[in-house]
């Protein structure tokens, strides 16, 4: 409202939150820089209908009314029950405990309440915390710390610590609130469930919403269903939310349905969904699975497409290096891009009833463009490292990683992880789309620790498995399959 009254309306598809932060900090130089880079557009207020400002003021009135209602709430039964459990349960009392919550504001609230009850043994950590606080966490909760201390017993943290730091001097994880994404649950527990832990058992405590609230949002049922699907698919015999027997699930539906779990990360849903989909074919239709498995190399298929432009998607392999490229014909010109697995799977996915389309004569020049893009990976002396190193995104990301690699607050594991990511880039095993996403994610993150947490959230251990991370790129360059999209036709 203040900016509209000053005559400015800022519009951005990717940087809206950043703009508000920069305006609050009065960092107009950075705002101007984003505008110059066309990442943000500043339009005059006069371009907008007068009702726009009226609507904003109406929204503000509602928000103030909500806040005034909260001001009348003086009792929080959830935190009362929580503190009681910490004080009396023998598995929690006098034990080192890791408490995870979704929001920094909740972490602040919890920390204040716990310090009032338990004193200075409580430590808080979130994305804005300092390196000295991270060092304190390692000293007090990492069993491999070079300088172990016992200054803190209770750690309250956000998702920023769900990866990258071992906390296995504790055997207790408490989820004060439950994330929509159960992968985060696994990451949280993974901080204490280490191979070299001294504990025979680990304990996971989950605080679900109160009955009336849960009736509105259905979080408990949704989270339990999703976790159950994970356990069934991945064979995990350590339930994270419930000790009940796991029943059969329609995994693909569970893992991809926004109805089941709203707010879930779409990419993670789809990746696991495709895996479950293939396993279902293997188990229910062995003949079809065998046919898919033995498709000849250079297999191709055409289909009608709603888009007016024609395109070809091609999956290449050389040794253990996999790449997918898409070339789209736009008039007399063609544009080639590398696409990641999820994008390619989304493009190629088809129902059994979909009719084949004849592969047109323009298939071959489009395929040739994809081949040229794949060849470019090996352009200089046949090495991936030199080819990749000459490109903007990889160069920028490599520079950032080298700059933060030996940060004083990093553990040996952190430094090793950064080194492994650097090798992924050198081996050409990190998709451009992933690098681009990471660079956007860390753009306004100056501190190494939260930056590393964001990088870890995009580059999981799966990237380092032989199928992804091996530098073995010997052998012939192979076209595995291609999909032809005949533009201009009705789907």
Structure explained in plain terms:
By secondary structure, this protein is an alpha/beta fold. Helices cover 46% and strands 14% of the residues. The strands form 3 sheets. The chain has a 5-stranded parallel β-sheet with strand order 4-5-3-6-7, with helices on both faces. It has a 5-stranded mixed β-sheet with strand order 8-12-9-10-11, with helices on both faces. Strand 4 (122-125), helix 7 (131-141) and strand 5 form a beta-alpha-beta unit. Helix 12 crosses helix 13 (286-293), helix 17 (392-404) packs antiparallel against helix 18 and helix 17 crosses helix 19. The radius of gyration is 26 Å and the shape is globular. The relative contact order is 0.08. The model is unreliable at 241-268, 380-390 and 467-471 (pLDDT under 50).
Main traits of this protein?
five-stranded parallel sheet; globular; alpha/beta; 491 residues
Subunit organisation of the chains: single chain
* End-to-end Cα distance: 45 Å
Q: Detail the poorly predicted runs.
A: 241-268, 380-390, 467-471
- The helix fraction, in percent, is 40-55%
Number of strands: 12
* Mean of residue pLDDT values: 79
Shape: globular
Query: Order of strands in the sheet with the most strands?
Result: 4-5-3-6-7
Alpha-carbon Rg, integer: 26 Å
Please give a quick description of this structure.
With 491 residues, the protein is α/β, with parallel strands linked by helices. 46% of the residues lie in helices and 14% in strands.
What is the secondary structure topology, with strand pairs?
Elements (H helix, E strand, L loop, with lengths): L1 H5 L1 E4 L4 H9 L3 H9 L4 E4 L6 H21 L5 H12 L8 E4 L3 H15 L3 E4 L5 H11 L12 E4 L14 E4 L6 H9 L12 E4 L4 H7 L1 H16 L16 H6 L9 H19 L1 H8 L5 E6 L5 E9 L2 E10 L2 E6 L2 H8 L14 H14 L7 H6 L2 H13 L7 H15 L5 H10 L6 H11 L7 H4 L8 E9 L5
Parallel strand pairs: 3-5, 3-6, 4-5, 6-7, 8-12
Antiparallel strand pairs: 1-2, 9-10, 9-12, 10-11
Helix pairs in contact: 12-13, 17-18, 17-19
């Amino acid at each position: 409202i203040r900016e509209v009254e000053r005559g400015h309306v800022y519009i951005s598809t990717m940087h809206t939150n950043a703009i508000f932060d920069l305006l609050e900090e009065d960092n107009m130089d950075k705002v101007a820089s984003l505008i110059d880079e066309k990442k943000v557009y500043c339009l005059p207020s006069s371009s907008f209908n007068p009702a726009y400002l009226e609507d904003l003021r109406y929204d503000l009135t509602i928000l103030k009314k909500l806040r005034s209602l909260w001001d009348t709430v003086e009792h929080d039964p959830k935190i009362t029950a929580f503190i009681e459990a910490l004080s009396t349960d023998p598995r929690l009392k006098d034990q080192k405990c890791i408490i995870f919550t979704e929001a920094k504001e909740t972490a602040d609230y919890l920390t204040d309440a716990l310090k009032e009850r338990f004193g200075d043994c409580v430590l808080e950590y979130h994305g804005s915390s300092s390196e000295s606080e991270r060092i304190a966490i390692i000293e007090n909760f990492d069993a491999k710390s070079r300088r172990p201390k016992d200054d803190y017993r209770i750690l309250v943290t956000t998702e920023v610590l769900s990866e990258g730091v071992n906390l296995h001097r504790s055997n207790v994880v408490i989820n004060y609130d439950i994330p929509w994404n159960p992968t985060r649950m696994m990451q949280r527990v993974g901080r204490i469930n280490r191979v070299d832990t001294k504990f025979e058992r680990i304990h996971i405590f989950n605080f679900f919403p109160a009955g009336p609230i849960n009736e509105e949002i259905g979080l408990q049922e949704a989270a339990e269903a999703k976790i159950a699907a994970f356990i069934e698919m991945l064979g995990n015999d350590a339930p994270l939310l419930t000790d009940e027997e796991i029943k059969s699930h329609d995994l693909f539906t569970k893992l991809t349905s926004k109805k089941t779990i709203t707010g879930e990360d779409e990419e993670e849903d789809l990746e696991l969904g495709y895996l479950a989909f293939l396993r279902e074919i293997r188990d229910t239709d062995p003949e079809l699975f065998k046919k898919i498995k033995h498709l000849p190399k250079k297999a191709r298929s055409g289909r009608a497409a709603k888009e007016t432009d024609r395109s070809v998607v091609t999956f290449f392999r050389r040794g253990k290096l996999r790449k997918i490229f898409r070339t789209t014909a736009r008039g007399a010109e063609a544009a080639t891009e590398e696409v990641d697995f999820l994008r390619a799977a989304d493009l190629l996915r088809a129902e059994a009833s979909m009719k084949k389309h004849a592969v047109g004569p323009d298939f071959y020049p489009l395929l040739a463009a994809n081949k040229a893009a794949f060849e470019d990976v090996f352009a200089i002396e046949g090495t991936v490292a030199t080819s990749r190193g000459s490109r903007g995104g990889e160069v920028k990301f490599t520079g950032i990683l080298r700059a933060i690699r030996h940060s004083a607050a990093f553990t040996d594991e952190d430094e090793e992880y950064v080194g492994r990511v650097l090798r992924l880039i050198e081996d050409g095993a990190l998709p451009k789309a992933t690098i681009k996403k990471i660079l956007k994610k860390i753009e306004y993150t100056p501190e190494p620790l939260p930056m590393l947490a964001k990088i870890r959230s995009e580059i999981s251990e799966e990237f380092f498995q032989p199928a992804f991370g091996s530098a073995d790129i010997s052998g012939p360059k192979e076209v595995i399959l291609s999909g032809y999209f005949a533009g201009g036709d009705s789907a």
